[in-house]
Amino acid sequence: MTTPLSAKNLFDLSGRVALITGGSRGLGREMALAFAQHGAHVIVASRKLENCEVVANEIRSLGQRSLAVAYHAASWDDADRLARVALDEFGSVDILVNNAGMSPLYPSVEQISEDLFDKVLGVNFKGPFRLSAILGTHMAQHNGGTIINVSSISSQRPGANEVIYGAAKAAVNNLTMSLARALAPKVRVNCIVPGPFFTDISKAWDIEQFTKAARTNYALQRGGQPNEIVGAALYLASDASSYTTGSLLNVDGGPR
Questions:
Q1: pTM of the shown model
Q2: Which CATH fold topology does 11-247 show?
Q3: One of 165, 218, 235, 243 is an active-site residue; which one?
Q4: Among this protein's residues, is 165 annotated catalytic?
Q5: Which residues on neighbouring strands pair with residue 251, listed in sequence order?
Q6: pLDDT in tens, 57-88
Q7: What is the biggest distance separating any 2 CA atoms in the chain, rounded to whole angstroms?
């Protein structure tokens, strides 16, 4: 029987290594800084190296090691490279957060090009699969770990303009449940399913229209602030969720 942790230590990540894709801004940045504040060393991976370096420097200022890596989530080879760089630098990855995503606009369903289709599936699904396969297998063969996928409420209630994105994120939900079984018992795999958050993507919203709709469509009657993802991320990354795997955790303001 495992000895229960004290409430004070439940969210302690001291000495653990976390890798966060899409970690240079938005929800990824909030998770990266929160993990560092709780003792983790953090690898920040995203398309633009200079943006990753900004966050890595913030993490170093908190007293933790950090590595910035340019990473294209739709590239199979880049996933292999990122995993290799992370393991060479730190020896292990204890927490993997597949957060990188994209949901581009398109004029109509029939005008979605093959290139756009492949790009959206690549960033949102292929990247998380490949990184999880490599690093999850390494975790399972060594000291275990936890994988956190970041999906979207579009995976459960897709809008008319999220046809490919919603399908890709639904695949991430399925991937979460299947990998939880494939990598058990040493690796836990869970998924955060966010609703609308005021990250960079919200700059394209009609805020007045969104605010009005939120009063009707969401129990909390608003969108989320980026730092409101932190509680869910810390729970799934830490020993607080030691008996949780294969779960989808909605953080979405309670859609009505």
A1: 0.95
A2: Rossmann fold (3.40.50)
A3: 165
A4: yes
A5: 194
A6: 999 999 999 999 999 999 999 999 999 999 99
A7: 57
